[in-house]
Specification:
Length: 157
């Protein structure tokens, strides 16, 4: 199984890039992880948030195949403890042959068409974080999940 982490826009802050790179490198020991960045839209001042989400949706949906299991990082999604998230990932590895695609949308979230295509939604917290920071939080939690599944001493309860 391959995991794809699809994001709208680049990670701009050096400290976030450094943290993301750290966990992506660590994850190579556990799974095939691909980071895919969809370029941010240009000239968005003339677009409403709904128009922007629709244009982002076109780009997102082009990166997904019908066989992929799509999980949106969404504030209204299911919340897990780190141990529960590890069990979720483990179950997906065992029960699905599809690639897992985790998606972080743009600043306004997702268009209806992306919600309709999604198989699941996950929230990292009830709090709102910048979509830049969520990237780091997600890859750290994915790394933590794999160390939990392997019984390694990274996570403490």
């Amino acid at each position: 199984m391959k995991i794809t982490f699809l994001t709208v826009g680049k990670t701009e802050d050096a400290y976030l890039k450094e943290g993301i790179d750290k966990y992506v490198k660590r994850l190579k020991h556990y799974t095939k992880l691909e980071l895919v960045e969809i370029p941010e839209l240009k000239n968005t001042k003339a677009l409403s948030p709904e128009q922007q989400k629709a244009k982002e949706a076109e780009l997102i949906l082009k990166k997904i195949t019908p066989l992929d299991f799509v999980i949106l990082m969404d504030e209204k999604g299911s919340e897990f403890t780190s141990t529960q998230f590890a069990a979720y990932i483990n179950k997906k590895e065992v029960t699905t042959s599809a690639n897992l695609i985790f998606i972080i949308g743009g600043p306004y979230g997702f268009d209806t068409s992306v919600y309709q295509r999604a198989n699941d939604k996950i929230s990292l917290s009830r709090m709102t974080f910048s979509h830049q920071m969520v990237r780091l939080f997600f890859v750290e939690q994915l790394y933590r999940a794999y160390t939990i599944m392997k019984g390694e001493p990274y996570h403490h309860e």
